[in-house]
Amino acid sequence: MRNVPDMPVLKWLDIPPLWLLLFAVLARIQATRLPVGVIDHPLVDLLAGLLLGGGLLLILVALVQLRQNRTTIIPHQPAQHMVSNGVFSRSRNPVYLGDTLVLTGLILHWSAWPSLVLVPLFMWVITDRFILAEESMLREKFGPQWDAWSDKTRRWI
């Protein structure tokens, strides 16, 4: 008899980068199929670039920091250590915040203005599917250390 894994394949597909990709694809479809007018202004380009670059940099810094602290970067997995310094002293979820900045930057770059409504929807999906469970695991494992950190550090920014 075949050994069936505890986690179905679809659970492994339920990862934040795929959600980011889905929302970015939706924004791109809106930009190309239902364009609402391009705002060709250097400030919009600058803002889009800053959001994209800043988001990617934030993700990279947060992932490096997680690896340096020898804890998981994989959602749905329990953390070995709680990281509350560096970028994690400003946001409890800098990787997800970086994802949100990237999505917003892409939407601005593509002039997909109606797709800006996807940003709070993306944040809600990430909170519901990942953050709440991660916070629960951290609270259970680290108790008072978690409480002190979560009291002084916001979930997003």
UniProtKB/TrEMBL annotation:
Protein's UniProt keywords contain Cell membrane: no
Name of the protein this chain belongs to: Protein-S-isoprenylcysteine O-methyltransferase Ste14
TM regions (residue ranges): 47-66, 100-126
PANTHER family: PROTEIN-S ISOPRENYLCYSTEINE O-METHYLTRANSFERASE, PROTEIN-S-ISOPRENYLCYSTEINE O-METHYLTRANSFERASE
Annotated GO MF terms: methyltransferase activity
Bilayer topology: Multi-pass membrane protein
Major subcellular location class: membrane
Keywords, comma-separated and alphabetical: Membrane, Methyltransferase, Transferase, Transmembrane, Transmembrane helix
InterPro entries: Phopholipid_MeTrfase
Subcellular location, record wording: Endomembrane system
A single Gene Ontology CC term: endomembrane system
GO terms (BP aspect): methylation
Domain of life per record: Bacteria
Pfam families: PEMT
Entry annotated with the keyword Oxidoreductase: no
Coiled coil: none
